[in-house]
Amino acid sequence: MPGLLLGDVFPNFEAETTNGKIKFHDFLGDSTLCLVVSGSWLRKTTKNPEISIPNYNIFRQDRTAKGGGVAIYCRDSLQSFVLLSSWGILFSHPRDYTPVCTTELGRAAKLSDEFSRRNVKMIALSIDTLEDHRGWTKDILAYNNEESGCAFPFPIIADNQRELAVALGMLDPDEKDKDGMPLTARCVFVIGQDKKLKLSLLYPATTGRNFDEILRVVDSLQLTVKNRVATPADWQPGERVMVPPNIPEEEAAAMFPAGVYTKELPSERKYLRYTPQP
Ligand code: BEZ
Fold first, then answer.
1. Which of 43, 84, 94, 171 makes an SS bond possible with 182, Cβ 3.0 to 4.6 Å?
2. Predicted pLDDT at 30
3. Separation CA 125–CA 39 (nearest Å)
């Protein structure tokens, strides 16, 4: 039975987390249309807001405002722009107080500023209680050599009844607890600003994930959602990207003014086309 497929609207589930009860879509937030009247500032205190403002609009931004957020100054006429909702990353792990999971959540916590810079909200899940999560996050902070009083940078869902794990297809039938009940696998879902599933990864309990790779795929997803390009194997941000095969040659030349390089191949087919990252 297929679980969640790419392009599906991610379920708007309710859950208890270490930061209180959430409804998932509200947790990610909604895109909002904002208006700025000419000659005035509009202030938004959302952390790391992402704003769609066409380049030709006349405006000034101040991202150094106290308390984070952004202030936008409009010089000319009434301007409208959309304050975009967050991307989301939901990742499950088998169990609290286990070694691989501790290294994974420690690494994810260390990278939380990187996810935040990309406007991605993080949330973890396992089939343990809130009390376990709260105790275990102190160990994770100690593993990271951080002060025990520090706040953990993202919430953890307490799915001790396994309801979400079942609904989202996260259980690993090969890993069982002492009562013979299956544990959660190492699942990653990346959810776009349209609340649709953009990527899923499923690792068994015995293999820890590479969070640098997860950041890299977020960079690729965010680039390819905005530009008609694809990223090749092992691509890193800033490196050249590929022109997708469904763009005809003439259109590609107009679409990528920085140039398109086509690699000669024995088949003489012109499908291996590169362009600098837009
Ligand atoms: C771990 O996180 O170390 C782990 C959890 C369940 C099975 C195997 C390893």
1. 171
2. 76
3. 46
Task: Give the domains, in start order, of the chain with CATH numbers.
Answer: 8-27+86-221 (3.40.30.10), 31-84 (no CATH), 227-275 (3.30.1020.10)
Q: For residue 254, report the phi and psi dihedrals to the nearest 5 degrees.
A: -75, -35
Task: Decide whether any atom of ligand 1 lies within 6 Å of the 95 Cβ.
Answer: yes
* Of residues 185, 163, 169, the one with CA closest to residue 95: 185
How crowded is residue 11: how many other Cβ atoms within 10 Å of its Cβ?
14
User: Which residue has the CA at smallest separation from atom 1 of ligand 1?
Assistant: 100
Task: Give the residue among 216, 204, 197 at the shortest CA–CA distance from 93.
Answer: 204
Minimum-distance ligand 1 atom for the alpha carbon of 93 = 2
Residues constituting the chain: 278
pTM for the whole structure: 0.85
**pLDDT by residue (tens digit) across 175-200?**
888 889 889 999 999 999 999 999 99
Tell me if 175 CB under 6 Å of ligand 1: yes
Q: How far, in Å, is the centroid of ligand 1 from the Cα of 186?
A: 10
Q: What per-residue confidence (pLDDT) applies to 65?
A: 47
Assess whether the C-beta atom of 101 lies below 6 angstroms from ligand 1.
Answer: yes
How far away, in angstroms, is 189 Cα from ligand 1 center?
A: 20
Measured in Å, residue 205 CA sits from the centre of ligand 1 at: 5
